[in-house]
Recover the amino acids of this structure.
């Protein structure tokens, strides 16, 4: 069974999303996806994050949908846009309704 990653801390995730959106907004479509790929790969390495999935929509169309890094470090399973993520939850953070 493949286990997903819990992901980066919330602040790092927000920073990554904000920077990806800024890069895409400032560049043409072809250049932007290359710049995002380079940025995300460098960000993952610098912050020791094993992997992530990125999806960007512009004007209602998906312009980028790609996995970066690995979903399972132990087994070397590559991250894909379809990779599921496990999120750590505690009872204090759980919603009052059943999942």
């Amino acid at each position: 069974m493949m286990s997903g990653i819990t992901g980066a801390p919330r602040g790092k995730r927000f920073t990554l999303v904000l920077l990806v959106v800024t890069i895409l907004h400032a560049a043409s479509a072809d250049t932007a996806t290359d710049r995002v790929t380079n940025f995300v790969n460098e960000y993952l390495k610098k912050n020791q994050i094993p992997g992530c999935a990125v999806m960007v929509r512009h004007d209602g169309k998906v312009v980028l949908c790609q996995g970066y890094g690995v979903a399972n470090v132990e087994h070397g399973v590559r991250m894909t846009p379809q990779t599921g993520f496990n999120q750590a939850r505690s009872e204090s953070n759980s919603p009052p309704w059943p999942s």
